Amino acid sequence: MKFKHSIFSFLLFCLALIVIPTFIGNLIFRDYKVRGIGSANQIGFDAKSNVSCDFPDSSLTLENVFIEIYSSEMKHPEIVLRQSMHECKQHGVYYNSHNCLKRNNLFGMKGGTKTDSTGSNPQGYKIFNSWQESVADYKEWQDRNYKGGNDNKEEYYQFLIDIGYAEDPHKYVKNLKRIPLIIFDSCKLMK
């Protein structure tokens, strides 16, 4: 009886070693996923069509996008980062949307006439050679359209609503405010 008890205890212990870290890891990191590990796109296939697709740019990370936004001296960089996260989220993973991966378009900007790597662009989204170009394009757009300061976040959210940034600007801003952010110390040291 003692032998069966010790085997059962050992198996329970092994199971706990597998289940508990996985549960805790999912609990801690569920809101901060930036490309799911082992996702179909990371291994070069589109999950829905099984067609080989482009590998994502390895420099496209949450921290690098924030550094690019911050170093361009954009107004309200935290809100702009939230916009990129919102626009590029697919299946719960940031920077994983078709617009992001195929068009390097982090902000859902329209006005493009080029076709993407699939040979189409029916919605008229802009297509960039790199995600950094997308950030530069947003900066130009912001400079042209936003005349407010950098002190009042609510003023910028209201600007996004007033300009009609999304199909439903009120819902869009509400969703932006829900996105949790990690502010990177390396960005604060850049200025």
If you had to describe this structure to a student in words, what would you say it looks like?
By secondary structure, the chain is mostly helical. The protein folds into two domains: 42 residues; 127 residues, Lysozyme, CATH 1.10.530. Helices cover 50% and strands 0% of the residues. It is built from eight helices and no strands. The radius of gyration is 21 Å and the shape is globular. The relative contact order is 0.12. The C terminus is likely disordered.
What descriptive keywords fit this protein?
about 190 residues, mainly alpha, Lysozyme, 8 helices, disordered C terminus
Task: Briefly say what this structure is.
The chain has helices at 2-29, 62-71, 77-87, 98-103, 131-145, 153-163, 169-178, 185-188.
Question: What is the share of helical residues?
Answer: 40-55%
How many E-type strands?
A: 0
CATH architecture assignment of the largest domain: Orthogonal Bundle
CATH topology of the largest domain: Lysozyme
Indicate the overall shape: globular
Structural class: mainly alpha
| Overall pLDDT confidence | 74
Q: Please, how many domains? A: 2
Largest sheet: none
| Number of distinct helices | 8
Integer-rounded radius of gyration: 21 Å
* Highest CATH level, the class of the largest domain: Mainly Alpha
- Cα-to-Cα separation, first versus last residue: 68 Å
Low-confidence stretches: 23-55, 185-191
User: What is the strand content?
Assistant: under 5%
SSE succession: HHHHHHHH
